[in-house]
Each structure stands twice: as structure tokens, then as C-alpha cells.
Amino acid sequence: MSNKKKTEINFDRIDKQVHKAVLADEKYSRENDAKFRALHQKVATYDEFKGIVEASHLKPLDKTDKITTSGTFQQVWNSQASSKDGDDLETNPLNLNLVNIPKNSSDFWKEWRNIKISEEKTNYLLKFKDSQIRQFFKMEIPSDQLESLIKSLSSVGELNRLSTIIECIQNSKRFNLAVSFMSLELKRTLQELTMKLESINPDLVTSMMKILSL
Fold first, then answer.
1. A GO term (biological process) for this protein (predicted)?
2. Which of 38, 66, 106, 194 could, after both became Cys, cross-link 52 (CB 3.0–4.6 A)?
């Protein structure tokens, strides 16, 4: 009978190989996820796209993470781990430290066009003081952006801010002409938003209703 040499199984080696394969799979998943997020955010340059993918190894991205157009992201942390009350921490994907701060009306609308999600447009708008909004809306509001602006106001909860913004819209140049090209649906939306202000700014409500009825 021939003696067969027993084959020893190196469990440590197998464990290392499995661990290495798991890490490689996780790395692929993170980078692939980052690529899709970058494409969704429509980054401006390849360098920004590359930066997002390369930075994905710093911390796995979660579905709730937000990537800004500047190539950085903010992560929504577990509320139970960060707050005794269990309230979600408010995170704003459009921190003005991460985007170009507009110096004038033209810069504002250029940045506005780059934001594709209505909720993010609202967050961006509310970052500015009333005086800045008045300055941005002093000139004519681009006709192709007026609809997205009005619709973004639906999630503005603070009536004083809403009043200021609607008043700025009304006082913008050629607004009366823009109203004549509005759809009935958009007019109705603006009417409903304005009616919320009846208790704090009845004069604005009266003047806006008059314009919308023309």
C-alpha cells in the first residue's frame, strides 16, 4: 500500500483571501455607487467626477448621502446615535461654502439652473438674506426659470420668508408681462401660495390677485 501524503489546509491563508475578496467587492460597490451619484448630480468636469470616485474609499456612501456639484458630499448620520431625542439632523446638500456664492443676479440664475431638484432649489434660495433676494430679483426673472422658482416655494414654511420672495417676484421687471404667458396651473399655484399670506401681508395678496386676474 502506498502512503499518501496528507494535504494540510491553511485556514489563515484562506481567511486572508476571503477577506481580500470582500474588501475588493466593497471597494467596487462604493466606487460604482459614487459614479452613479456623480452622474446624477451632473458634475461639470471629469476631474470632479474622478474626485468623487477616488474619495469614495474614505467612507462608504449611503443611499441618503448627498453629493454637491463641487464634488463633495454630506452624509446623513444615524439620528439615534447622534440625538437623544431621536430627531433627524438637518443636512443641507447645498451649503454655500461648497458652491459659488453669486455676486449678482446673473450668477444666481446660473447656479439655479445647475440645481435640478426642486427641494434643493428651495434650500439654495433660503440660504440668502431678504436683502440679497431683493437684489437678485431686482432685474427681470428669466422666463424659463420662473416656473421652477414658483414651484420651489411650495415647501417654504416660514410665511415671512415666503412673503418677501413673492413680493420680490411681483416687483421684478416685466413680471406683468410674464404672467400673461403663464399656464393656468402655474397661476393657480402662485395664487394658492399668495393666499397663505393673507394674515400677514393682505396688501400683497390684493395686488397679486389683481395681476393674476388680468
1. determination of left/right symmetry
2. 38
